[in-house]
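lol forgot to send this yesterday, sorry. struct tokens for the thing we talked abt
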């Protein structure tokens, strides 16, 4: 780094001082984390647990009787059906996210992000929030991709900005939202602008943290700070296969558990109860935010789901639904918990929820 001038208000690579993982100890660098022999039992356990949970859910649903009178309560059958629906909808995007994560970690040159991203921290995070335009993966697939970005040396605030913005600011989500609502009612504009502003606000708040690496789980933080003297060896394809096994063993159990929780909550909460609140400017926003958190539907198709509520709920509540569900839902939190601490996720959920509530109320009052 000798002879390189530091960017204004930041480190030589454009980050806020102390914001990158392991800041103050060594400069960010590429870390291709792959399993060692000692990690093999943990990988096998994670993969086995995830597959076993998925098989159990599917088996119980297939073997359950089709009518409540045959001994299985209707709520139990609904739980299996809803849980499997969330799992099946999310699983392809998780695998796509894992593949993109491996591509970033192993095949993308180490200096690519440093060369292409702006040096100013605010502009850098703004660029990260638009990365979803190039990588149109839904929110569950963005988690493994963000893990790859963190291992590549990006800061926690930059990765979090990408995580929150990418599910909304990508071509698939924008097109489906336009097809469902068009331009006239302001729902599409509110979703795009709101997604960009909220994601960058969260990224800025996280950038103020003096030790961003403490927002990561100890296990993932240790992966990001692997010893420089022990680089991973082997061909790229072999490392890719091993990395795929590691990411899958981490993501799959969390996805299954999150899907089961989403199914259980949907069974316990009546949509009719939520619909009775649709005409109230405040309660309608809160009701649809709760619904978005519960159903955990993919951001690429959530506009078509909520379209049926358009005649019952106010526009601001629909905007809040489209924003909050794409950024924070029960399945998403289960996946994020593999990487971020519970305290960090509480801050994210509270801040995103407050922003969506304020934005929804504003749209309702102005509409």
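and heres what i got for the seq, position by position
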């Amino acid at each position: 780094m000798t002879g390189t001038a530091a960017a204004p208000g930041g480190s030589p690579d454009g980050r806020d001082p102390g914001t990158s993982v392991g800041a103050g100890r060594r400069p960010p660098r590429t870390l291709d984390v792959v399993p060692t022999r000692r990690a093999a039992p943990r990988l096998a356990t994670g993969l086995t647990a995830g597959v076993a949970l998925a098989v159990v859910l599917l088996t119980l649903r297939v073997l359950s009787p089709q009518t409540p009178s045959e001994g299985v309560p209707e709520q139990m059958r609904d739980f299996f059906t809803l849980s499997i629906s969330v799992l099946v909808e999310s699983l392809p995007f998780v695998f796509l996210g894992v593949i993109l994560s491996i591509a970033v970690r192993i095949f993308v040159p180490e200096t690519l992000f440093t060369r292409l991203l702006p040096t100013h921290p605010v502009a850098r995070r703004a660029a990260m929030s638009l990365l979803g335009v190039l990588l149109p993966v839904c929110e569950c697939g963005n988690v493994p991709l963000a893990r790859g970005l963190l291992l590549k040396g990006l800061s926690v605030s930059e990765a979090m900005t990408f995580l929150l913005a990418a599910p909304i600011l990508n071509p698939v989500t924008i097109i489906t939202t336009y097809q469902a609502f068009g331009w006239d009612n302001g729902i599409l504009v509110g979703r795009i602008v709101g997604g960009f502003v909220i994601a960058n606000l969260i990224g800025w708040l996280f950038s103020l943290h003096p030790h961003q690496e403490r927002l990561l789980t100890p296990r993932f933080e240790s992966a990001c700070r692997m010893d420089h003297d022990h680089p991973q060896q082997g061909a790229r394809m072999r490392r890719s296969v091993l990395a795929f096994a590691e990411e899958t063993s981490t993501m799959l159990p969390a996805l299954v558990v999150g899907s089961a929780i989403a199914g259980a909550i949907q069974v316990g909460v009546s949509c009719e109860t939520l619909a009775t609140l649709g005409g109230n400017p405040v309660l309608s926003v809160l009701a649809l935010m709760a619904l978005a958190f519960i159903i955990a539907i993919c951001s690429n198709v959530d506009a078509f789901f909520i379209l049926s509520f358009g005649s019952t709920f106010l526009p601001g509540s629909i905007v809040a639904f489209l924003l909050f569900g794409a950024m924070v839902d029960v399945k998403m939190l289960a996946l994020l918990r593999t990487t971020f601490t519970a305290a960090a996720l509480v801050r994210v959920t509270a801040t995103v929820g407050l922003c969506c509530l304020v934005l929804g109320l504003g749209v309702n009052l102005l509409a």
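Residues 1-40, 227-231 have pLDDT under 50 and may be disordered. anyway ping me if u want another try
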